[in-house]
Q: What sequence folds into this?
């Protein structure tokens, strides 16, 4: 029996899904008549829509495949990350969203470097080193994140469709490029809303069938009686807790400083939208994390000799003893939507930053949207090419990109919003010292004892504070 005959329902779901994406691309293109429309939806979006987009953008294959799989390796200690993600999601909406939305609107900022330039650069020069440096960080970190998502999506299509990994990456590339390049921000957010609902349904469904196959929700107590599984219930069992806490902090800080998350706040219509969005974003993310993070632990009752934790969820979903065929078909679309929901946001932010802050200042062009759409295509092709031979597993790659964002943008964004002190030099030096110590800590191997984000972030914040005190405010 061919794949199409066996999974005809999945083919129908995927076809309908792609049609919806293309329809949203068309609707988005109708309002993307200028830079503000294409980049931030003319700042007219509701809190509910942006709130769903916020958690859907964050909960990608990194969550469905990476984080769910890592609990197999680290046990209940891995839930530390889930707790911090929920806390930082609330902090982001409560303390970052309101002032950032106001300032971005008043200063007509369309990208994160735009905001930094308006806040710290007195001359308003679009060629200032601060804008260039921040744009380079966003472009580099985005490539890392994108290749991790491409890897996750590639594994999904490879297992579900029975096609080569390279072909699977290519299919993902074509789909995401089409609707992101055409529709811009509005297309991405509208699509994220649909994908967010599908992800919630997918998370609940995975939890139900996996726990059922493992013997029920309470079956986890069986693991406590197995000597070789005791590490699952020890905070230092799978990895030193100090290291795991650093990983968790690095992953959580992205909710405050990651441009793909912050760009959502740029599109909010008003303060009322902020108050609506906070509950949608936090509750949605909480439900997804609560259903997916325990899966790795229950997998110990189902799978043996797992060597690649990124393959746990795809293997379980493709197992007829765990999931009925029709459920597998539904989950194929749900997990693919998780990949697309982050990929489109990262693509849009990275390509917008690439054109507006790295290309346009040196080569102005009246065809701004055409250049930005071209940047989407180029960026996606580069990331997909790198995903054919990725440098690490999904979580490792995305956590490193989160560390970069934390040390580079935490002082600038948080202190920039809540302190009158600050200067371009303070931001630039904080970025330089933070990245230098981050890389040095890894090269020297000290991250075996303390995760690199702790010393690097402390050094970055201290550098900003010291230089800000002696610098003139712009």
A:
């Amino acid at each position: 029996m061919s794949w199409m005959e066996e999974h005809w329902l999945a083919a129908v779901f995927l076809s309908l899904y792609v049609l919806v994406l293309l329809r949203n691309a068309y609707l988005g293109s109708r309002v993307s008549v200028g830079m503000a429309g294409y980049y931030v939806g003319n700042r007219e979006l509701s809190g509910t829509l942006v709130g769903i987009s916020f958690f859907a953008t964050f909960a990608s294959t990194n969550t469905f495949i990476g984080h769910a799989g890592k609990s197999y390796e680290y046990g209940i200690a891995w839930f530390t990350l889930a707790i911090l993600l929920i806390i930082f999601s609330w902090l982001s909406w409560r303390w970052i969203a309101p002032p950032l939305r106001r300032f971005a609107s008043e200063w007509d900022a369309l990208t994160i470097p735009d905001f930094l330039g308006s806040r710290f650069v007195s001359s308003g020069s679009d060629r200032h080193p601060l804008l260039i440096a921040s744009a380079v960080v966003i472009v580099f970190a985005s490539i890392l994140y994108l290749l991790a998502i491409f890897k996750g999506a590639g594994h999904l299509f490879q297992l579900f469709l029975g096609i080569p990994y390279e072909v699977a990456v290519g299919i993902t590339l074509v789909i995401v490029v089409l609707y992101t390049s055409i529709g811009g921000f509005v297309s991405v957010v509208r699509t994220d809303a649909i994908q967010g609902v599908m992800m919630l349904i997918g998370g609940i469904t995975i939890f139900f069938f996996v726990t059922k196959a493992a013997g029920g929700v309470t079956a986890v107590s069986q693991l406590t009686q197995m000597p070789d599984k005791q590490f699952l219930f020890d905070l230092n069992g799978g990895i030193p807790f100090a290291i795991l806490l650093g990983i968790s902090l690095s992953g959580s800080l992205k909710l405050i400083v990651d441009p793909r998350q912050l760009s959502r706040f740029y599109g909010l219509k008003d303060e009322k939208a902020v108050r609506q969005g906070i509950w949608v974003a936090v509750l949605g993310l909480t439900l997804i994390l609560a259903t997916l993070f325990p899966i790795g632990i229950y997998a110990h009752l189902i799978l043996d000799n797992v060597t690649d934790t990124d393959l746990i969820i795809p293997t379980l979903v493709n197992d007829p003893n765990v999931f009925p065929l029709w459920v597998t078909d539904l989950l194929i679309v749900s997990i693919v939507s998780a990949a697309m929901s982050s990929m489109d946001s990262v693509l849009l932010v990275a390509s917008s930053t690439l054109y507006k802050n790295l290309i346009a200042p040196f080569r102005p062009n009246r065809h701004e949207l055409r250049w930005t759409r071209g940047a989407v295509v180029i960026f996606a092709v580069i990331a997909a090419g790198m995903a054919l031979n990725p440098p690490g597993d999904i979580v490792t790659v995305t956590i490193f990109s989160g560390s970069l964002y934390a040390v580079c943008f935490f002082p600038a964004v948080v202190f920039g919003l809540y302190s009158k002190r600050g200067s371009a030099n303070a931001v630039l030096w904080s970025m330089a010292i933070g990245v230098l110590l981050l890389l040095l800590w890894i090269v020297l191997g000290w991250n075996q004892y303390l995760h690199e984000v702790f010393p690097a972030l402390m050094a970055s914040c201290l550098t900003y504070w010291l230089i800000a005190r002696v610098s003139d405010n712009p």
The CA atoms of residues 161 and 249 lie 36 Å apart. The mean pLDDT is 85.
